[in-house]
Amino acid sequence: MRSFQAHVISCLLAEIERRAALLGNSDPIRILDAGCGRGDLISELMHILRERGKLAGRCELYGFIATDRMAGKTTSCDDLVESLKARHPEVGWRGRIRLVPSGGPWPFEDRYFDITISSQVLEHSRQLGWYFEQCYRVLRRSGIGLHCFEASEMSRAIGIFPSLAAGSGLVDSGNDRPGSDGICQVIPSWKRVLDIGERVGFKVSPRYNGCLLRRKLSGDSTAYRYSRSLFDNFAIRLLALWSPVTLISEKVQRDS
Asked: What's the CA gap between 39 and 62, in Å, rounded?
């Protein structure tokens, strides 16, 4: 497993366990990979949950592929569905993996998910406000969005020190998107992303960046449940220069 993918899964394990305690013992925990690429993150998370046993039966994983005229000619999610069926035949993927036009509403009902994931997606989005609006719409009350992305601070630093790219998520995403190189990127700062999320109605904060910093320094590529850190506000400022960063958006306002 790649180091950055292990980081995303470790974040998810912590949030899944927190959500399980909040919901009690019966309700399913629905997780949406918003921009699931080839489905590698979904597949790895399925494996990890199965190994851990107790939460595997409660977690339901979903995903969508965003189509974009500049990013290729994706007109069907059949290949991804078949790939996931081959790896995890016990799940009915046909109803869980969907296609959405770029800039279109996400094809899921309101207040359906407990967790949404964006793993190196925000830096490819032209409409961050719309993205967060859709994220807010599909999340249940107190649901969270996990956002791991390369901020503009990293682009500027790599322009000055190209060797930083060797340690960045640019070469270790674990979630490749066919054709994404053709997308015109306007990469925001992490503070800008935080501000947009809060204007939509989320409570947004850095989380698990201290864990990622330790992972980067140690070279660890295993997935395990993270713990909260007191140093996330400091760690994100340091990480933003040479690595993707992590924000959590929690739905705490405005819902009826």
From this structure: 10
The pTM for the full model equals 0.85
Q: Which two tokens stand for residue 168?
A: 């960045």
Question: Would you say 136 and 102 are in contact if contact means Cβ atoms under 8 Å apart?
Answer: no
Q: How many residues does the chain have?
A: 256
Q: What is the pLDDT of residues 86-137, one digit of tens each?
A: 999 999 999 999 998 877 899 999 999 999 999 988 887 778 999 999 999 9
Closest Cα to residue 150, out of 189, 184, 181, 178?
189
| Residue in this structure with the two tokens 């939509």, named with its chain if needed | 200
The domains of the chain, with CATH numbers, are 3-251 (3.40.50.150)
107 secondary structure, DSSP code:
S
Type of residue found at 250 = E
Distance CA 41, CA 37 (A): 9
